[in-house]
């Protein structure tokens, strides 16, 4: 959130959007969509605008349509970034809603899924959520991870990864520059014990997979491509 790119094209939040329902999972209000009896789950970790963003939920429904039980928790406890609030302070928000806390909050969600009979879990993180997902990928709590235009991911985070991981980045990104993501890819390639993949999408900017403008045909097409790449990764490794 050090860069204004995180704040571009904020969504209009809607607590009732999507085909799923909101229920409690691991102590968090969670958007749940897809077959409840599936033993394959995908955990979606939002950007700073939270789990009520319509395009984020639309993507959750899309993943669910492939047969996964999809869960998208409210890691911000009803307090996503709200640029319409004149009192909103970025630095204060960031201190309260750390990715370390998101990582800790994800563990009971995963445990709850396991208790319901889920045998394999993938995690996808967007911007803020990318850091949470990469930290989860350092454990065997999940079977695969996808980072989409992640923010604040470090070399140490990448060094700790233990499961198949895909990193989907934007060509125009000050927060996760393409060159940095390519460096991460080289580090991951040096670990032959699990599969990894880095792809940079030309002509799009940070956040495009969930914050594309509907009238921007190029960005929409690129977002759909990234969604498919993410889904293919989970289909391959979450089974």
TrEMBL record:
Q: Where is the Dienelactone hydrolase domain?
A: 29-237
State what protein this is by name.
Dienelactone hydrolase domain-containing protein
Q: Which organism is it from?
A: Xanthoceras sorbifolium
Q: Which InterPro entries match?
A: AB_hydrolase_fold, Dienelactn_hydro
- Return any one Pfam family short name: DLH
